[in-house]
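hey so i finaly got around to running the thing on Protein kinase domain-containing protein from Nelumbo nucifera. pasting the sequence first so u can double check i didnt mess up the copy paste, my clipboard has been acting weird all day
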Amino acid sequence: MVVVTELLLGGSLRKYLLNMRPRCLDRRVAIGFALDIARAMECLHSHGIIHRDLKPGNPLIFI
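ok and heres what it spat out for the 3d tokens, dont ask me to read them lol
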């Protein structure tokens, strides 16, 4: 199976976190990312889809 996504300016969560160094991620932003990812996983699971490779390089973000 192949998943195709639209082109998003901003890149991955990993890229965003690396670009923030040496600053820390604001707590509210971190909680927002965590909630968004949890909601996405809940949606996938409710449709019988298991994401077996969740890591910071996979979530795509745009700010």
